[in-house]
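Quick log. Single chain, no ligands specified.
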Amino acid sequence: MTIWALAICLFVIVGALGRQVGAIRMSISCAGAVLALFLSGPLSPHVRSVLGTVGVKDPVLTWALAAPLVFLAIMLVFNSIAVAVYLKISGYYKHRAPDDVRMRWERLDGNLGLCVGLVAAVVYLIASSAYIYHAGYFTRQLESPNENPVWLKIVNKLREDLAGTGFDRAAAGVASVSPKFTQTADLLGLLYHNRELQTRLPDYPLFMSLAENGEVQSVLTNETFAVLLPAQTNISLILKHPSTPTLYGNADLQRVLQELDHADLLNFLKTGRSEKYAQEPLIGRWQLDIAATARQYGKSNPKATVTDLNRLRGVLRYRVADYQLITTPDEKAYLKGANKPLAGFAQVLTQLFRPTTQPPPVGGTNPPPPTLMTGTWKKEGDKYQLTLDQGGSAEISFVEKGKLATTLGGNSIVFERLD
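-> predicted structure:
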């Protein structure tokens, strides 16, 4: 119903305008509308960049304004040309042609203007339908089951009515958008409606380093902000929250968004595996493997007894069982854990063992361990080098499938990949 009402309004208004301004101006304006219809999509990214440089930081507003501004700019150019051409032609008929010729020309120009105006109304209807089609594709992904803002309800209603009239097929075929747009909409929809995928997002390799950013962490751990997305809160409340501009304005986040492979992230959210970063075996999250570390110590120290190895497993379980090594695509490394690295294992085994921490309760959950050290990793040929502040530099070797060994605190320790 709303689309038919829009169509009737366009035909009445633009048709009457064509009758008023004449065929010359309306023809040139109509040509501009056709050109603007096809150029709005390709030129929108450039306009979004300009809006960002002039201080428009709201991502929704930036996206919503880009295409209309391109359309309006092109129409202003063509309407200026139309006025200039009309003044030239009308000047001739007003000042040089006989009155009867001028009157016939004005009558012809007005009547043809009505016809061209109706054609222009069709172009404007297609342009409006294309905008509604793509805007609605995006907003329908963010429809909350609880409460939605008025503007989102209106856009979704228009999108629904557009499909009911069949105009959506014309809109989709005439004004296409980049695959990145639809992939972004699909990503936001998946994350908005699936809480379990929200918890998987920090494990995507490109986001691992971002998750260690202090500013980002402070926003995501904000008590009032952290609960909004999991609860599928009204999207306007999320956008209006004071933490949203801080998060979106973060320089590291902007860099990551520029590098993001949307198709690979979609695949990761659906399957838990990134094909893009799977080619580099070191990138990922690694958990300390207590049993493998004890075996590694036994291989390096043949004189170690079974009692020594069992004792070492107990020390590791109570002291450093929470150790995680995170290696990111930008060649950064993070060692997470609650306690400093142990001294030489042989020295530890000669001391009286006193547990300093308690293991997590069965079925219980503990918060992620804090970042203990930061550093970098580098690949040279087939060899890897890990450098941690306060931890020195050490080689990394893959001891078996899904496991790597490195030196920490003078000890050879083994990590197992976390999938």
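Residues 360-365 have pLDDT under 50 and may be disordered.
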